[in-house]
Amino acid sequence: MTDIFQFIKGLPKAELHLHIEGSLEPEMMFDMAHRNKVDIPFRTVDDVRSAYNFTNLQDFLDIYYAGANVLIEEEDFRDLAIAYFDRAAQDGVTHAEIFFDPQTHTDRGIPFDVVINGLLAGMAEAKTKHHISSKLILCFLRHLDENAAFKTFKTAEPWFDRIAGVGLDSSEMGHPPAKFARVFSAAGDAGLKRVAHAGEEGPPDYVHQALDLLHIDRLDHGNRALEDAHLMTRLAREAMTLTVCPLSNHKLRVVDDLSDHPLDRMLANGLRATINSDDPAYFGGYIGENYRAVAAARGLSRTVLAALARNSFLGSFLDDEEITENLKKLDSFLKNQ
Length: 337
Ligand code: ADE
Ligand code: ZN
What we know:
There is one protein chain. By secondary structure, this protein is α/β, with parallel strands linked by helices. The chain has a single domain (2-335), classed as TIM Barrel (Alpha-Beta Barrel). Helices cover 52% and strands 14% of the residues. It contains 17 helices and 8 strands. The chain has helices spanning 2-10, 26-36, 45-51, 57-67, 74-90, 102-106, 112-130, 146-156, 181-189, 204-212, 229-237, 246-251, 263-268, 280-283, 287-298, 302-314, 320-335, and strands spanning 13-19, 93-100, 133-141, 165-169, 193-198, 218-221, 241-244, 272-275. Strands 1-2-3-4-5-6-7-8 form an 8-stranded parallel beta sheet, with helices on both faces. Bound molecules: adenine and zinc ion.
């Protein structure tokens, strides 16, 4: 296995599904709670880790939103982003498209500008320090209503040249994509890319809605699309990228065991699947660990792993020239193996 782990580490790859708030490690949570004088319901780092015993999306989200309360100042958001990029650099990431949840912060009185300025500062540092390029995707919280999403959209307007796209996350069941059709249409009119979490816990119909009503450019998770053969054919025909998150799927019981993970079945059905970490501080590993764990559990070959890395660039929102540049790096790595 060691050889394949070396191969995974060196493989140039993009990360397309990463919630920056989900990269808040317990140690950093404690440091920020201390420096910002925020109360957290844990006494030790071990207490925090033992609270991560969720078995579904909602139980996880309750802890994830509570953890985000320690993020107050611009430097907190910058430190959070830098810590993620330092980790991603060790895993061979050359490009990352990161989600942020502004409503989680603005609803606590943290100005939007504080959040985005901090994240952009971290992204700029990642470029100089690690040569990692990155883009921001603003996610609307789907458990809130569409008016709240529109309000966030308006607040973000002066920053549209620094935001690649909009996304949809949080509690999926009972909050179908249709609820956000108008704000996604406005985002499309503003020239922003569109992505949405669908088919993580929600039924295949939510994936149909994301395609037909939100006009998504990329599908986050999409596991349950496998229950609908016509939908799978459509996703393959449209070369839709799926941002799959193996360790998240296991932790949130989207799959009972990683050995049952459908990643290679997705590829075999012509889907453009990619590997991502989702919320690495909560789900037991960053992108490299996601590659390693699913490779070990499913016995994935180097050829399959290289195809997954290739898909990550093809599915990114980089321009054609940047994609070609990254694919060249990938090909030269593969040639030297
Ligand atoms: N927010 C952070 N992680 C998420 C996930 N896996 N699904 C939905 N919303 C999220
Ligand atoms: Zn996610």
